[in-house]
Amino acid sequence: MRDVYAVVTGASSGLGFEFAKQLSAMGYKIILVARRRGKLEQVQKILKTPSIVFEADLGKTEECIRLMEETRSLDIEVFINNAGFGECGRFYETDAAKELSMIDVNVSAVHLLMKLMLQRLKSRVSGGYILNVASSAGLFPAGPYMATYYATKAYVTSLTRAVAREMEEEQSDIYIGALCPGPVDTEFNDVASVEFALKGISAKKCVKYAIDQMFRRRVIIIPTLRMKVVCMIAKFFPTKQVVAMTGKQQRRKKKI
Questions:
Q1: Does the pLDDT of residue 26 top 50, yes or no?
Q2: Taking CA 178 as the corner, what is the angle to CA 183 and CA 167, rounded to the nearest 5 degrees?
Q3: pLDDT in tens, 151-198
Q4: Catalytic residue among 129, 149, 150, 155, which?
Q5: Backbone angles phi, psi at 74, to 5 degrees
Q6: Predicted model pTM
Q7: 175 is catalytic
């Protein structure tokens, strides 16, 4: 068993749950972070290594800071910045409060936790790993009918690329990367009130690939060949056409 920790935010279900399981199986002690303590305690019971349940609403700045302060004495090597959610619908019809909350979690929390964790890893002798869970949505110019979600994930991928380059120019041993999957079979669908038009991959498969690529120090991680091809082809089409095609795909999720 490793005498170091991995932090997983949004660990109560979906990709976060899988990250916790697979990192625990690798020997990491786990810090499980989410709003639902009961769910976290259920996850805790199946892990193979010691773990800590940390109940927090990361949409609140003070909770992000509390997470970092209360774990300061622990040797954290891996930080999975996973908490996030989506929403689908016409921009003028979707709930503004839910969208602002989405920005707080998907953007502000990811940004702040990444910054605080990076500052912490800078003083660590052997560096460490920060993986931001974004989406293939962050690799497209815009996403009609999921406009806010696509914008938040574009922020994450842009920020990740920039900071990863800063670390590379410093010849730092700290890894910064972003996981950008297409459809994954998780609770995301229910929270966003959507049904994927394309078949999703399993969370287990997505996370297994993500961890492997993280340790290989791949900055942008796209788990399936299909999504890699789609993202590559999109670069050769006019932006207006790509946005229109993306919007058509999103409409099929909710039959808008």
A1: yes
A2: 170
A3: 999 999 999 999 999 999 999 999 999 999 998 876 554 444 555 555
A4: 149
A5: -95, 145
A6: 0.90
A7: no
